[in-house]
Amino acid sequence: MKGFFNFFINRTTVISLLSIIIIAFGIPFGLYGLTLKGGQSLGGVITLMIVLIIFIFLVIERAIIQGINDFNKKRINSIEIILLSLLLIIYNLR
Question: What is the pLDDT, as a whole number, of residue 7?
Answer without folding.
Answer: 63
